[in-house]
Design goal:
It contains 7 helices and 7 strands. The protein starts with 7 loop residues before the first helix and ends with a helix. The chain is of the alpha/beta class and 200 residues long. A hairpin with a 2-residue loop joins β1 and β2. The longest helix is centred in the middle third of the chain and has 15 residues.
Length: 200
């Protein structure tokens, strides 16, 4: 199968088992031991939010909590979850179809956080938010990354430097780790630009 672009979406879809991999395995380290990564280990926040638009935000959250009760640790009230994600009271009983792209993305992010997966995949997570909300989301991600593995894609190098412990470039299906202390290197800058061109 020939892919156009770097392969970022394919990589995420393989991790999420939406695409069957040709070879190799994904493992997660659990209490010092490696084990095969399972579907319940993963939460996936798509760049284009996918929410049931015929429900209100409250109905969607209640439905999600009801069907995932066994997975949810330290369950909170629906309004406590809304407060955590800074979703205004007047928006909580609105239909999701009337939400902006950024608000839908907030809801998608919220249900994945409630599910509390070990690995959270974020595809361009902050691009749909305004400056204030994006800063709130950055602070939230910094907080939850203490207890989770977060893998996110971004074209914004400053965001990667601010949030990430490790940075890799995916170019034509090849992952290459980048030394954060070596970003002034001209050769490295050119590699990053070439990788970004592949995505455009």
């Amino acid at each position: 199968m020939e892919e156009i672009g770097a392969g970022k979406t394919t990589f995420f879809n393989c991790l999420n088992e939406d695409v069957e991999i040709d070879s190799g395995k994904f493992f997660i380290e659990d209490n010092g031991k490696q084990r095969k990564m399972e579907a319940e280990d993963i939460g996936y926040v798509l760049s284009t939010p996918n929410v049931p638009e015929f429900l209100t935000a409250r109905e969607f959250l209640k439905f999600f909590i009801d069907i995932n009760k066994k997975r949810i640790k330290n369950e909170k009230t629906i309004d406590e979850y809304f407060d955590f994600m800074k979703i205004e009271k007047e928006d909580r009983d609105r239909l999701l179809k009337d939400f902006s792209h950024g608000m839908k993305n907030k809801m998608q992010m919220l249900v994945n956080i409630i599910a509390n997966p070990n690995v959270l995949l974020l595809d361009e997570p902050l691009t749909s938010f305004d400056v204030v909300v994006a800063e709130e989301m950055k602070q939230m991600l910094k907080e939850i990354k203490k207890d989770h593995i977060i893998i996110f894609s971004t074209h914004i190098m400053e965001l990667a430097l601010d949030l990430c412990d490790e940075i890799v470039i995916l170019n034509r299906g090849i992952l290459e780790e980048i030394d954060k202390n070596n970003l002034d290197n001209e050769h490295l800058k050119n590699k990053i630009i070439d990788a970004l061109k592949e995505e455009i």
